[in-house]
From TrEMBL:
Annotated spans, Disordered: 219-249
Gene3D superfamilies, A to Z: Glutaredoxin
UniProt xrefs under SUPFAM superfamilies: Thioredoxin-like
Entry protein name: DsbA family oxidoreductase
Leader peptide range in chain numbering: none
CDD domains, alphabetized: DsbA_FrnE (cd03024)
InterPro entries linked to this entry: DSBA-like_thioredoxin_dom (IPR001853), Thioredoxin-like_sf (IPR036249)
Bias kind Basic and acidic residues: ranges: 228-238
GO function terms (MF aspect): oxidoreductase activity
Domain annotation DSBA-like thioredoxin: ranges: 3-204
Pfam families per UniProt: DSBA
Top-level division of the source organism's lineage: Bacteria
Length: 249
């Protein structure tokens, strides 16, 4: 079973959603048969590489909200994060464009360590006050997961993986995502937002059960009623010759 998760490193609900999804996945009986793939998304592509103000100032200006209202929102999100074992510090957040970090995540994917890097970047941004737009920080993260420092700096000084990040964003929009986190299971079920572990668990069970049941579109097999015998020659699906335990038609 394949699960794709679109998220932005600068999205507080994405880290909370990651934890809640992981809680559900840990309790899923078939978790070893689940492939999780992180996909890129940007909430604010227009954000400069480095914003001089605080997170409160940025959101107040970007959303046209009073600073007090922004801080109340931060308090609520911080409480929700704490419930998942996360220690958010909005006062320490370094506001930066996340595009370079998303390119770095695609580099990490080629090394098979995308999930580890995703975790570190989210924690660095929301819990540790690290600058996700700083190449030195990204290179330091790379070294902790075994990616060569020179390779990281070479990639991030170029435009490598730019097309991949943009393709992820375009695909999310094509799928109807209007925000993140956005979870897609087997390209059939979409889950928007940092839902509860119970919601994720139910979605996993539903998708798994469905994936184990085959819908036969044509031909019930030898000895079955001919469901298409009265249909015209222009029907797309018709019974065909088959081989079974008793021999072949």
């Amino acid at each position: 079973m394949r699960i794709e998760i679109w998220s932005d490193i600068a999205c507080p609900w994405c880290f909370i959603g990651k934890r809640r999804f992981e809680t559900a996945l840990d309790g899923f009986a078939h978790k070893d048969d689940v492939e999780v793939e992180w996909r890129s998304y940007q909430l604010d592509p227009s954000l400069p590489d480095h914003y001089a103000g605080t997170e409160t100032e940025y959101l107040s200006q970007a959303k046209g909200m009073p600073a007090d209202q922004v801080r109340q929102m931060f308090d609520h999100v911080t409480q929700q994060a704490a419930g998942e074992g996360l220690d958010y510090d909005f006062d320490a957040i370094v506001v930066a464009n996340s595009f370079t970090a998303h390119r770095f995540l695609h580099l990490a994917k080629t090394h098979g360590v995308m999930n580890q890097v995703k975790e570190e970047l989210l924690s660095g941004h929301f819990e540790k006050g690290r600058n996700i737009g700083d190449v030195d920080y990204l290179a330091a993260v790379a070294q902790t997961v075994g990616i060569d420092d020179d390779e990281t700096r070479r990639v991030l000084s170029s435009d490598e993986y730019t097309a991949e990040v943009k393709a992820d964003i375009a695909e999310a929009q094509a799928l109807g995502a209007t925000g993140v986190p956005f979870f897609v299971i087997n390209r059939k079920y979409g889950i928007s937002g940092a839902q509860s572990p119970e919601v994720f668990a139910q979605a996993l069970e539903t998708a798994w059960d469905e994936s184990q049941n085959l819908t036969v579109l044509a031909g019930a097999g030898s000895g079955a009623d001919d469901a298409t015998s009265d249909k015209g020659d222009d029907e797309t699906f018709r019974d065909g010759a088959v081989c079974g335990p008793e021999g072949c038609d």
